[in-house]
Prior knowledge:
Chain A is α/β, with parallel strands linked by helices. Chain A has helices at 52-59, 87-93, 105-108, 115-127, 131-144, 150-153, 163-175, 193-210, 221-227, 245-250, 255-263, 303-307, and strands spanning 10-21, 24-36, 41-45, 68-77, 80-81, 98-101, 181-185, 213-218, 230-235, 238-244, 313-314, 320-321, 325-326, 331-332. Chain A has an eight-stranded mixed beta sheet, with helices on both faces. Chain A has a four-stranded antiparallel beta sheet with strand order 2-1-4-5. Chain A is globular, with a radius of gyration of 21 Å. The longest helix of chain B is centred in the middle third of the chain and has 18 residues, at 193-210. The chains are: A alpha/beta, B alpha/beta.
Amino acid sequence: MPDGATPFVLDVRDLKTVFRTRSGEVHAVNNVSFTLKPGELLGVVGESGSGKSVTMMSLIRLLPMPPAEIRGGQVLFEGQDLAHAPEDALRAIRGARIGMVFQDPMTSLNPVFTVGYQIMEPLRTHMGLTKTQAATRAAELLDLVGIPDARARLADYPHQFSGGMRQRVMIAIALACEPKVLIADEPTTALDVTIQAQILELIKELRQKLGMAIVWITHDLGVIAGIADRVMVMYGGQVVEQAPVRELFANPQHPYTRMLLETVPHIRGARNDKLRVIQGQPPILSKPPASCPFRARCPQAFDRCARENPARFDLGASHDVACFWDFKSGAARHV
Amino acid sequence: MFDTSGARKLVEVRDLKMHFPIRTGLMRRLTGSVKAVDGVSFDIYEGETLGLVGESGCGKSTCGRAILRLYDPTSGSIVIDGEEIAHAPFDKLRRLRPKMQMVFQDPQASLNPRMTVAGIIGEPLQEHTDLTADQRLERIYELMDAVGLNRDFANRYPHAFSGGQRQRIGIARALALNPKFIVCDEPIAALDVSIQAQVVNLLEELQARLGLTYLFISHDLSMVRHIANRVAVMYLGRVVELAPRDALYEDPLHPYTRALLSAVPEPDPAIHDAANRIILQGDVPSPANPPDGCNFCTRCPQVMEICRRIDPDIQEIAPGRFVACHLYTKETEKTAAHAAQSTGA
């Protein structure tokens, strides 16, 4: 058991998650390690199938098991290893110490219960509040996330709220027990840009007020640029690069990160006539990777990439990259 | 940049309205209507890409579908390549179908899972041409080459393909009859970032090679900036602004366009710190019950008294720049409109 003096609220080491399906195993998460400091916002970027959601759901074991199976690694949170903790312990943590916001606010709210009931539920289960106390707190929470006339709206059902308002309700539920860590899985992807802008402002405001650490999963580099302190890029179930946000955008070191930044068109500034394309398809993760997962699509790939899966090299300044190619010297890395 | 001055108008849409009835109760009594598209006019020039942007529910997809007569419009006129189709009878419409095609948003839902790729791409050929089976297969192979699909996969089913490849199948099907005009309804929304660029580049290549005209419907303003020559912005069933691409992105006129553009998160942390965002308050009103006056008056940061009473017409305030906003209405016209309204005209 780790000592309580760790500087991290969350310390994930070599996490491996496998899905066992009828047509074989899928190695969705391969040796993912990362840390989260108190109050920090970590952005996790990747395409569908890159393992970003499965990684975060594995932390709190919110995956159907089977078919999912955590095959290795540690998830250290408040002196416990969540990867090996008993189910009871996790139940006390989910929704209380670690809050969650999901992508689609329509499917993650229960349509047959009032919004008030759904906000009060964690307050009553985890914090043991009475019905009246919970109702007062629920109204405060709705007010906190910017829903007008909060007290009256507790009696409304999810369908009586718009998409953006529902996502605010989801955030209110996630914040109900004042979690130390909030996991937000594509929380603005289903929303329109003007509503997304409202939610991003709200999150910035709440961070200052409440000071929780946030893991923000998204495929939208624009959202990440505006909100994250640090960014982790995932590809093929692995972390391929990790750096402070400005460093990552100004000085990307993994070929995938570099290409990803060039494939998205910009709304301001110079306009390219042709978009950069990443040829090919993401890998199928039917085996534990013995080589670099990006190899087949990588313009920099050379023989070593097919023989070994690169470990994460520390580049200093909290920047690390899992690649054998060194863009700075324009040659292979000697490690 | 696309020059509209010498170009021919391929599509002319005038005052298009698409209202859907709301029926309630046991007797399905008509109690109102959803004004999904409520008086939209624009032209699309031959060989250009007109981007149609807006948020969900603004009516952009309905507009695209109505233009191809996938719906029967409530009123208005649609002229494609010189032929009026808004109220054309079925047999005439069928004769015109090969000219106008559509690429749908969700390649999973718009491809029949029980048909092979060859069957899907060949279906329009079977319906509209007299090609023999051999000729048809030749054409199918040609189309598969054109969109970058391996010929060997002609007998596979859609489920065997990735999202990007499925969208290529949808594009090949749309191209089968050599159309002039293609409505692309959010063709990349369901795809991953790295695959989006592949599909957009393909659409651009095909346009250059075949001289296609696109109506490109999307909520992705950055991608529309990349692909479109001119852009129309919709809000609650209306086009609020229409302008050449660079003019629209560099100098948006309508307060909604400004807010929309400023809400797009730019993938550059340095810009984020500097950007002065306009955060709109509230939500889009229901198209079943739009506000009086300008549709945007409930959220507009520059709302004036007149906006709550009189709906601004769309007008050309500079060559090629159309905007529907009282900020750009001349004082004399405002008074005239006011007078007309108060006399009940």
